[in-house]
Amino acid sequence: MGAVTRIKTKAPSPYQLAAIDVDTHDTKTFRFGLPADATLDMLPGDHLTVHAPINGKSVKRPYTPSSLPGTPGYFELTVKRYESGAVSKYLHDQRVGDTVLMSGPNEGGHWVDGMAKQVGFVAAGTGITPMISIIRWILTKRLDVDLFLLFANKTEADIIFRDEWERDVREHANFRCYHVLEQPPAEWSGGTGRINGDILRRQLPPPGPDTVIFLCGPPPMVNALEETLRGMGYSEPSIILP
């Protein structure tokens, strides 16, 4: 196989929608085509900017690809539809064959091989998308890294990539996953309510020079948990916001 072209653009560029997969009742994964010998020029956790034409204006929002970085021929965005989210509704209205304007990838809080031996992931809702990109990367490359995923959702039906998490737990001894639900079913064995300091202490690796924590979700949650993590002894550089 020849050299792979790595794509990164400053100006919005059109990408054609090749496939759509329904993940949950309000979340879809959109696969966009690339040339067979091309991939996005990004590290796990970096993001694209979607430029959506809405009411005669271009509205921009960042989205982190959920697909494995370095994959040639396509990339994927996993998007939850929000009634108040103009761009998420725009993406959910697209059909196979349509094109969407995007620029980037742009650097975010990303993973770099060798940066840690223990990695915690604290996510809520679609804050999971940069996490799955990083987790897929580490597990696919079989890096010597212990992974701890803490994933919060409202209901069991809202858990994105649930089948993959369960498969990863079965197949990878270095991967752990703990779910927290605000509205759990009657026989739920995971966490309930919202993520708090007690859950963080029980489910994440302890602070240390070989530990990093990725944190992504609604801004109020991120702000509160970032402060909690610092109070638990995690250094500011070890808390990464994709």
Provide a descriptive summary of the structure in words.
- By secondary structure, the protein is α/β, with parallel strands linked by helices.
- 21% of the residues lie in helices and 38% in strands.
- Strands 6-5-8-2-3-7 form a 6-stranded antiparallel β-sheet, covered by helices on one side. It has a 6-stranded parallel β-sheet with strand order 12-11-10-9-13-14, sandwiched between helices. Strands 1-4 form a two-stranded parallel ribbon.
- It starts with a strand and ends with a strand.
Secondary structure blueprint with pairings:
Blueprint: E1 5-7, E2 9-24, E3 27-33, E4 38-40, E5 47-54, E6 57-63, E7 74-80, H1 86-92, E8 99-106, E9 118-124, H2 128-140, E10 146-153, H3 162-171, E11 175-181, E12 191-192, H4 197-203, E13 211-216, H5 219-231, E14 239-240
Parallel strand pairs: 1-4, 9-10, 9-13, 10-11, 11-12, 13-14
Antiparallel strand pairs: 2-3, 2-8, 3-7, 5-6, 5-8
Structural class: alpha/beta
Gross morphology: globular
Mean pLDDT: 96
Q: Tell me how many strands there are.
A: 14
Tell me the Rg in angstroms. 18 Å
Can you summarize the main beta sheet? 6 strands, antiparallel
Helical stretch tally: 5
Strand arrangement, major sheet: 6-5-8-2-3-7
CA distance, first residue to last residue: 32 Å
Low-confidence regions = none
Task: Spell the H/E element sequence.
Answer: EEEEEEEHEEHEHEEHEHE
Task: Tell me the strand percentage band.
Answer: 35-45%
Share of helix, binned: 10-25%
